[in-house]
Specification:
This protein folds into two domains: about 130 residues, OB fold (Dihydrolipoamide Acetyltransferase, E2P); about 260 residues, no CATH class. Helices cover about 20% and strands about 20% of the residues. The chain contains ten helices and twelve strands. Helix 3 packs across helix 5.
Length: about 425
């Protein structure tokens, strides 16, 4: 929606919109830069104008050349960025932040920018040095002004059927917290990772669900796909960096957010997002729990974290018929056959007659009707979801002793999936 909206706007606007002289924006070397969409430069500015700080209110349109073969993670220090203001497009370089010992920048500004949102941008000598979010996209917004009818970032948040409490370190609260993004957070590959794809995004180090996830979900429909085959039109990070890090969550982004919101009371700390296949083992290495065999025959406990090849998920326990109820973010098929999906209660079993599927279908249809209109409950096969090849994959069982990271005063770890769900949802 965001990409289509602004492409329509830009086609309707002058295709060769230039940087306005009065903004004072110039190039990286202080040379005059009045740049059109073809990359040509026109116009002149004097030295005094070049040295001045410029400010503008603008809608962020994304990385210049997004989806082209030249715009990849290897070239990200040299990216230019598109802003729309006063009926014109600005194409500008940006301060990449601080470089570490390995030569990697931390990209603080890029990690705050989101397509279609309005910002107050500041620049010195044509390089953007600061961005301040002013408003998120709202219905009826016009690109000519960039700000008309925009809504605040906290507007219209959903009523959550289950809520956790930040910083309460119990197994029950871990599962209650894990329910918060369910039913209104779409699957975005790289969602929850930072822009440069190295660690946790701001959203996964923030207390509470992100309004960006909710807004993006409501902007889409059952035809949303996480991986369009055309890179310029896709939300998938073909370039190796996460343009849409803020719009939803992938599996490890989801787990990272759940852990942060369970173990912390304040935003802005160190995050937990990491490689899915090694997620469980890495947590075990930090003393969170012990590794165990993942198979159906061993009986998964509520709260177990299972890493398989390319995926990670949370167990809600093994049912009497051997099927397993799970929580995860996955690109399941919509009712129109599109791979979209996201954070949901799902099932691992052999068919839809299994107990886990009946439970997942009941709670997704009853408690998340807007989601259920687009997505049926997702059933996954045991051969894939319970297979952990030798290496980093495996299942972590939480240490819930008095010295554990989490405790279990309610005895959740020994409950059946049905009992866990009734405890969380109250019915």
């Amino acid at each position: 929606m965001i990409k289509r909206q602004f492409r329509t706007i830009l086609r309707a606007a002058a295709l060769c919109a230039v940087l306005l002289c009065q903004t004072g924006f110039t190039g990286a070397e202080g040379a005059p830069v009045m740049q059109n969409l073809s990359g040509e430069t026109t116009g002149m500015m004097n030295t005094a104008e070049q040295a001045q700080m410029a400010e503008a209110t603008a809608v962020y349109l994304g990385v210049y050349g997004y989806g082209t073969p030249q715009v990849t993670k290897e070239n990200k220090p040299y990216f230019r960025y598109r802003f729309f203001t006063d009926g014109q497009e600005l194409v500008l370089p940006m301060d990449n932040g601080t470089m570490d010992a390995l030569g990697e920048y931390d990209y603080p500004l890029q990690n705050r920018l989101k397509e279609g949102y309005t910002y107050r941008i500041k620049a010195v000598n044509g390089i953007v040095t600061d961005v301040e979010e002013l408003a998120a996209p709202g219905a009826g917004k016009t690109a000519a002004s960039g700000t008309e009818n925009q809504v605040s970032a906290q507007a219209d948040m959903p009523q959550l059927p289950v809520r956790g409490t930040p910083g309460v370190r119990t197994l029950r609260n871990f599962l209650a917290t894990a329910m918060e993004p369910v039913g209104h957070t779409l699957y975005i590959y790289g969602g929850g990772w930072d822009w440069q794809d190295k660690g946790s995004a701001l959203q996964t180090r923030t207390i509470g669900i992100s309004p960006d996830w909710v807004r993006f979900f409501r902007e889409q429909n059952a035809d949303f796909t996480y991986k369009n085959t055309s890179p310029p039109a896709s939300f998938y990070p073909f370039g190796g960096y996460n343009e849409y890090y803020y719009a939803g969550l992938d599996c490890s982004g989801y787990l990272g957010w759940v852990l942060y919101n369970t173990l912390n009371r304040e935003s802005g700390g160190e995050g937990y997002v990491g490689k899915a296949s090694a997620f469980a083992r890495n947590l075990s290495g930090k003393g969170f729990g012990t590794m165990a065999a993942p198979g159906l025959q061993s009986g998964l406990h509520p709260g177990d974290i299972v890493s398989i090849d390319g995926h990670v998920w949370i167990s809600l326990g093994t049912c009497s018929d051997g099927s397993v109820v799970i929580l995860h973010s996955t690109p399941s098929l919509s009712r129109t056959g599109q791979p979209g999906g996201g954070v949901q209660i799902g099932a691992v079993g052999f068919d839809e007659n299994c107990e886990a599927y009946r439970l997942a279908d009941h709670y997704m249809s009853t408690c998340y009707p807007e989601w259920y209109e687009r997505y049926p409950a997702a059933l996954k096969g045991p051969a894939v979801y319970l297979y952990c090849p030798a290496g980093m994959t495996g299942r972590m069982v939480w240490d819930v002793s008095e010295n554990g990271v989490l405790t279990d005063p309610e005895g959740v770890q020994s409950m059946t999936p049905e009992t866990v769900l009734r405890s969380l949802f109250g019915a």
